[in-house]
Amino acid sequence: MLANSTIINGSLYSYSRDTLGSRCHTVAVNCNMNRTILPNLWKECHPLFNPQRMKTAIVFPIAAAIAISSPMACFAQEHEVKATDINGDVYVKLSDLKGLLSASSGSYDSGSGTYTFETSDPIVEIAKKTSPSVVAIIGKSQLKSGESSSKNDRFNLIHGTGVVWESNGWIVTNAHVVKDMAQITVVTYDGHQYAGKKMYVDEESDLALVKIDATDLVKATFAEKLDVEVGDPVIAIGTPISFTLRNTVTSGIISGLGRSVNSTYRLLQTDAAINPGNSGGALVNAKGEVIGINSLKYAAAGIDNIGFAIPSETVIYVINNFMQYGKVNRSTLGMNLEESWAAVVGLPTEDPLKVITVNKNSGAEKTGVVSGDLLYSIDGVSINTIVDVNELLKKYTPGQTVTLKMLSGGDLVERELVLSESK
Fold first, then answer.
1. Within a 10 A sphere around the Cβ of 219, how many other Cβ atoms?
2. Which of 5, 131, 159, 176 is labelled catalytic?
3. What is residue 222's DSSP assignment?
4. Is 279 a catalytic residue?
5. What tens digit of pLDDT does each residue of 298-325 get?
């Protein structure tokens, strides 16, 4: 990377003449030309601009760039570095800037006033940070009733991936990976093998916890609040196709949000390669946070670049329930609902949900809900799909009371309903 530079009191500084104008000066590294400075190219940053603080700091949207799936796909993060205002020019120490861009060395040319340095690949840094928290899981397929074993059973193996939830041996993975798995073996990033035990399995969310007798594992950082946008770069880490391909890293972007593909809860969509065996692995953002657990279960065979992951918020909800209750302590309205035709085919709609049946002795029955009623909202939140209901009910526990807005007998009414426990 080539930057305009000067020396102040023995330190190298990079400077911009337009920082005090309507734009923040932006230093960017082009994905294909990582030795070029591209001022003011990355993005507008008016909300970050504060002239009152220019003598002490300036916010730089740094594009520490690397080709991902296309020449212009970059990992971009915002950083704050100290800066100095001298006669209208804002100076930033190149040693600070070099650190943000993961540059190992550089050289200053006093004749041209430029400083040249190389930046490292951010995917490499993210993979280095997160891969030690990703494990491979392998075991035998459990025999079903009536099935008999054969001499080739030692090759009848199934495998998947997991992510370290706690350093003392708790591993999160997909329910469909371990549900029918016997003699579970977990292989960590450093090649150590451990016997695994299924502790909790929840097929509704397709999540499970496996326990191994290990300490000092590298715990993954899960994003507690999902702050993602379509187009955000991500990497997927897993064990695709063969168990010999443990900790394979692929990259891509977030392709869609709030997807529901035969799922109880909403999913993240990505074009990062997710193949058989990746299930239970990590979908990671540019900060190295796990934002999802990959689940091939929702990707049909033969379809390219369409993968899905269970969002970290759902993962945290389910595992917290595992730890507190030994299961997912779900709430239910006590009624079976039907989506409108528009909702079923995926059209944008504000149609309500229709009550098909009401469970006996449920909160719905006790509050007077009957078959044929229409459900518009829960506690003021409009709902149009069954996934909407499931997502909303994650905030509640059985026994709590919610207010339903319904059309019943031709009248728009509000009903107080005590949530039941889902069986």
1. 15
2. 176
3. B
4. yes
5. 545 567 788 999 999 999 999 999 999 9
Of the candidates 279, 295, 312, 331, the residue annotated as catalytic is 279
What dihedral angle (degrees, nearest 10) is formed by the CA atoms of 393, 398, 399, 401?
10
Residue with tokens 């337009």: 18
Compute the distance between CA of residue 243 and CA of residue 359 in angstroms, rounded to an integer: 46
What is the CATH code for 331-421? Answer: 2.30.42.10
φ and ψ at 139, to 5 degrees?
-175, 180
User: Residue 113: left if φ>0, alpha if ψ -120 to 50, beta else—which one?
Assistant: left
Residues 140 and 159: their CA atoms lie apart, in Å, by 9
Q: Between 86 and 388, name the one with better pLDDT.
A: 388
231 backbone φψ class: left, alpha, beta (φ>0; ψ -120 to 50): left
CB 182 within 8 A of CB 135: no
How much is the pTM? 0.75
* Per-residue b or e along 382-403, where b marks 16 or more CB atoms closer than 10 Å to that residue's CB: ebbbbbbbbbbbbebeeeeebe
Distant-in-sequence, close-in-space partners of 355: CB < 8 Å, separation ≥ 6: 335, 336, 337, 338, 364, 369, 370, 371, 372, 373, 374, 375
Would you call 192 a catalytic residue per the annotation?
Answer: no
**Domains in the chain: boundaries:** 2-120, 122-326, 331-421
Q: How many CA atoms lie within 13 A of 296 on its CB side?
A: 24
Helix (H, G, I), strand (E, B) or coil at 203: coil
Say which of 202, 206, 232, 271 is annotated catalytic.
206
Sheet containing 114-117: order of strands: 57-62, 77-86, 89-93, 11-16, 2-8, 114-117, 106-109
Q: Which CATH number fits domain 122-326: 2.40.10.120, 3.30.450.40, 3.30.70.260, 3.10.450.50?
A: 2.40.10.120
The span from the CA of 367 to the CA of 376, in Å, is 16
pLDDT value, residue 142: 79
Judged against a pLDDT cut of 90, whether residue 138 lies above it is answered with yes
DSSP at 94: H
CA–CA gap between residue 149 and residue 71 (Å, rounded): 52
> Is residue 73 a contact partner of residue 31, using CB atoms and an 8 Å limit?
yes
Q: Which two tokens stand for residue 106?
A: 């550089």
pLDDT tops 70 at residue 5: no
Catalytic: 411? no
